[in-house]
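Before a colleague's protein record goes any further, I have to sign it off. My question to you is simply how this chain folds and whether the tokens agree. I do not need a full report, just your reasoning and any doubts. This is what I was given:
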Amino acid sequence: VQLVESGGGSVEAGGSLRLSCVVTGFTASRSAGRYCMAWFRQAPGKEREGVATIDSDGTTNYDNSVKGRFTISQDNAEKTLYLVMNNLKPEDTAKYYCAAGPSCDMKRSAYNYWGQGTRVTVSI
């Protein structure tokens, strides 16, 4: 299983970015039943935290800090995971990771596959 993120960058506060995560090798796991894809982020000196999750039935969940601003989705072929981030704030600055696992949870321990991360910097 391989997850490769892209789309990070530097933007001013109030701006937008769309992160992508191409997933390969996960098809067999998905066909076995429920699976979950998620976005996490880790700011310097802080713990990695869950941002958004999307279940195999399309159910989404968001951390309170990003509700109404971020949208998680996956394409029809379910090979790419997206995170659209609007109205970005300086506190959104972090390295963003996509993750895959058997169940949806905002806890890092729930996921057994991770990407290498893509950096997002939001300036005032």
